[in-house]
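Example (one chain per record):
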Amino acid sequence: MRVRLKTVCALGALAAAPTTAWGEPAKPAPDYAVVDRIAGADGGWDYASLDTAGGRVYVARSNAVMAIDIGTHKVTDALAPADGAHAVFAIDQGRTVVETDGHTGMTRFIDAATGKVEDEVATGTKPDAAVYEPVSGRIMVMSPGNSTVTLLDAATHKFISRFTLPGGLEAAVADGKGDVFVNLEEQGALAEIDAVKGEVVRVVPLPGCEGPTGIALVAHGTRTISACANGVAVVVDTGAGQAVARLAIDKGPDTVLADETRHRAFIPCGGSGTLVEIATDNPDAIRVTGRIATQVSARTGAIDPRDGRIYLPAATLGQPAPGAKRGKPIAGSFVVLVLAPQP
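Predicted structure:
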């Protein structure tokens, strides 16, 4: 498939933008706190998601899809087997779970009630992030191993198309209007994709951002926030296709959580053991407002838009092997931290 690529230059955008918030000091007394810890089986993890229809938190584990009942905190450590799971989320009003399997290259469709794998589709090398796009009814799978984006039909689970997008495909978010935004980790940029046409609309540079991973849409879809490996987050105006602000965050982020009801975003920083809180009420003055202590290694998570509760997988890590990014989880230490707004 032909890829239409329009690169947007924003080299001087941050210098000119009045909303730039580099090094803005955090306010004291954050209003969120850890209220519970839900233990789970040993092993690694990646993305998490929250399904309001099914009342569950899903966590992609190294060897399984984990499910947690929000109401009872009952844990199903292995709803379905996996081999290096990365993304996991529910579709069909909670009836089906989608999982990307990094080691096998498959994207799986799982019955949420029974854990039975209904279908699996080859989706490139090392499929990682994935997202459901409601206008097209498609699931978009990012495979950085061979720099491909695969489109699947969410209803039939069938392959639709595939195109190449180099630059280190990372986390993605759908705007609900037919477009998907995905971070390009190696390029330090943000790509906008038309999910209906299956082509790239433009690529937006993220000045000062090294290794963007997590991403969220905020301010009614008018801004994206990309979390970067070098301790910053970059805000992009989605209409203009231009970076407009840069925020100081902490070490080791891997996701961005948006709470549009409360006009906030949160970035779990696993290297620092903090959750950076960001105010999004004013799209022209998006700013850091606090830091909440969590746990070193808590780098991904999910948020419940109904009550604002945040769920962060974490574990105590051993010393990393030479050349490894992080150590392996110590036996018996895996938990999902539950944070709640404080009165």
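Caption: The longest helix spans residues 13-16.
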